[in-house]
Amino acid sequence: MRSDNHVYNAGVVIVDHLFSVDEAEQPFGKRWGGECFTLTAEHLAALQAGKTLALDVQNEYVTFVRLEPTEGKTATIQQIIRRENGITEPFQSVSLQLTALFRQAIQLANAEVDAIIQSGERSAARIDHQLDHMLGFCCDPDMLLAFKRLCRYYFTIDPVATAGHINAYREMWDRPDETVGGGAYEF
Fold first, then answer.
1. Tens-digit pLDDT profile for residues 36-49
2. What's the confidence (pLDDT) of residue 129?
């Protein structure tokens, strides 16, 4: 069953609502089970940064989700939205809302980083909390700059903790095929 309400592409169907997998009349035909996954802004940011999501399906299977690559790079959510016909408006709205949330998070993070640095703050708890909060948004170059500024400041207070935050960044956002400055990281 394929109707105007579905967009089919390589085993992926965009549907208007959840459906029973037991019914024979559904986009894939009868299936034995199904599960619904809800993606967060962090998941979408990771996809946009070229990461792949691994989904645990009913404690038995793993499904991988990634964005379609374009021109040797991972497509941004907005590039995909512009390219797709018929589903543009709902995703355009979500995309614009996510972009606005990212901008707001970056503004708030920059204000907090400025406050920490200007006040000479030495509280490891406050700085660690701020770096942890910023990490999920470091796919954005502006947030990464704020993250690096705070890491540089924190390094003079606690180099070991700072190294832990830098390693967390690398684990979350670096791609295996990526090298920076001939393999040397610039923090």
1. 777 777 777 777 77
2. 93
